[in-house]
Structures are given as structure tokens and as C-alpha cells.
Amino acid sequence: MTGTLRWHKASYSDAGGGQCLEVAPTPTTIHIRDSKNPEGPRLTVSPGAWAGFLRTPAFPPASASSW
């Protein structure tokens, strides 16, 4: 299936080799992998789960003491 996926590197990626993700969206699944290890393990999530992840703030609010 890898040959049919179109992988997109995160816009925050740079040539310095920082930690970066690549995603390959399909109508029913979002495929996620480490850009430095494209043949390594992959994570797949539903489009709804991915959308929820993207809406999550990078840092929890100060009132979220359980974090």
C-alpha cells in the first residue's frame, strides 16, 4: 500500500534533520510515519481522530493540573 500513498512532510520540517512527521491522508484513514524512518512503524487513525488531534493545543492550559 505504501506505493499508492502520497506522503506529505510537515511544514515545520527543515534540512537540519529535526523531528518530523509525514502524513498520507486517504478518504477513510490518515497514515502517519517518522520522516527519518519511512520504512519503520506507522500509525493509522481515522480522519475524525486526526482532526481532534490537530485541534488539541500544543501545551495544556495552566488549569489542567492533571497533565
Automatic annotation (TrEMBL):
Any single Pfam family the record assigns to this protein: DUF397
Protein origin, superkingdom: Bacteria
UniProt domain DUF397: residue ranges: 5-55
Protein name, per record: DUF397 domain-containing protein
The organism of origin for this protein: Streptomyces collinus (strain DSM 40733 / Tue 365)
